[in-house]
Amino acid sequence: MDNIEKLAEIVNNSHSIVFFGGAGVSTESGIPDFRSVDGLYSQQWDYPPETILSHTFFMSKTEEFYRFYRAKMLCLDAKPNAAHLKLAQLEKEGKLSAVITQNIDGLHQAAGSRKVYELHGSVLRNYCTKCGKFYDVRYIIDSEGVPKCECGGIVKPDVVLYEEALDDSTVSGAVNAIASADTLIIGGTSLNVYPAAGLIRYFRGEHLVIINMAPTQMDKNAELLICERIGEVFSRI
Ligand SMILES: [Zn+2]
User: Fold this and answer.
1) What confidence tens digit (pLDDT) does each residue in 97-149 have?
2) Which residues bind NAD(+) (predicted)?
3) Of 185, 224, 180, nearest to 204 (Cα)?
4) 105 annotated to a ligand binding site
5) What is the pLDDT of residues 187-216, one digit of tens each?
6) Which domains does the chain have, with CATH numbers?
7) Ligand 1 ion: nearby residues, β-carbon < 5 Å
8) Residue 128 among known ligand-binding residues
């Protein structure tokens, strides 16, 4: 039995799969990985992206934040790939209970997934920092400079910036999902980003599967380790 067949068997025998995904899930949809060598960090800006995408920078250099954000963070032409689609299908079949993602692109929902914990938020949601009014991503794209609410407040993406805490209810929902899963599939993440990566320690289920191109700190705990592109893997089960 090869790895793909083993994965298919685990999936078939599972009733509450949780998928925990990272940037690698979206790179196959053409969205660059922040931390990969050919990702955003190697590109030329006045500040490193990690600085620009921080709370301090947003508060102090909001216009420069949005110049970068509009140019690099909004990949709205991206389409769900085979991994997104298969996960949505497994949820419909009642085999998958939740997707937990570190991505902010909304592609799981675009594929049809309903229970999605977005640990780092979503570029598709934006809120006035003064009155809380919602603005969609089109409003951000169509505005110039710093997007403002009709009340005069600054509109901020519902994205967890560096220095900012994760949303409590999102984290507790994700923890509960992991704690009650029979199978945890970790995909497209090297588990380097905390506190998000720390959530997987709540897993108490039977089958831990890791699908990633690079080694992770959890490899030694995995029942099945697949070192292939995640869209490719999910298109074959
Ligand atoms: Zn407002």
Assistant:
1) 999 999 999 999 999 999 999 999 999 999 999 999 999 999 999 999 999 99
2) 23, 27, 34-35, 102, 104-105, 120, 189-190, 212, 230
3) 180
4) yes
5) 999 898 778 788 999 999 999 999 999 999
6) 3-235 (3.40.50.1220)
7) 128, 130-131, 133, 149, 151, 153
8) yes
